[in-house]
């Protein structure tokens, strides 16, 4: 699409603006019914590389009337048609990963590998290694702020940015006053030194002690990244949930000054 805009209109967009165009243009086209998502497979996961778009039949019919006397009435008819599902509603009818929260409630995640790992972090990691666990934030592939306890985080001195930089899961240890910062390392990698620096800056005003954890589905996935893991962080493997790998011997799971 960006190549076509360059060819037709002489407008060149930088390669790193793809996501901006998708979020600030294509999503709105979908919401008003100009474009439909995945006509070949409506149940495709949100993070699939095969995700695609197609102009809707109603929009195509309207565009073909441009310049004709029926164009004006056609626009009015298009505006008054039954409203299409918004992106938010559409994503809710896709298959979900249901997560059981520590307080007994449930939460639905988009289907996908990272969601499986996030569920394991909440259901398996938190009960084993966090005392009185309180889930304060979960980022989801389909909804970057699926769970965001803004008021509780503000009381801890934490304010997360609206987009980017936020970790996958934030868990408060209510007994030891630790903030467990978890990255589900399935697509974006673990907490390496660069990511640790970013997170340390993001949570620099947090009152609780900070604990950094990289979560992997299994040892095979961990082996791809083990050389990049930052010191003074921890690693948890979902297939061996009773154990932690500590990248430093000064202490086991806990914050560093």
Question: Can you walk through the features of this model?
Answer:
This protein has 257 residues and is of the alpha+beta class. The protein has helices at 2-9, 18-31, 57-63, 71-80, 87-92, 113-129, 150-155, 193-202, 219-223, and strands spanning 35-37, 53-55, 96-100, 106-110, 133-138, 147-148, 169-173, 178-184, 209-216, 234-237, 244-246. The chain folds into two domains: 2-91, Arc Repressor Mutant, subunit A (Orthogonal Bundle), CATH 1.10.10; 95-246, BsuBI/PstI restriction endonuclease, C-terminal domain (Trna Endonuclease, Chain: A, domain 1), CATH 3.40.1350.80. Helix content is 32%, strand content 20%. The protein has a seven-stranded mixed sheet, sandwiched between helices. Strands 1-2 form a two-stranded antiparallel sheet. Strands 3-4 form a two-stranded antiparallel sheet. The longest helix is centred in the middle third of the chain and has 17 residues, at 113-129. The chain is elongated and about 75 Å long. Mean pLDDT is 84; it is low at 85-94.
- Counting helices, strands and paired strands, the structural category is alpha+beta
For the record, the count of structural domains works out to 2
How much of the residues is beta strand, in percent?
15-25%
Number of helices: 9
Mean pLDDT: 84
Low-confidence stretches: 85-94
CATH class (first level) name of the largest domain? Alpha Beta
CATH superfamily of the largest domain: BsuBI/PstI restriction endonuclease, C-terminal domain
Q: Between the first and last Cα atoms, what is the distance in angstroms?
A: 49 Å
Strand order, sheet with most strands? 6-5-7-8-9-10-11
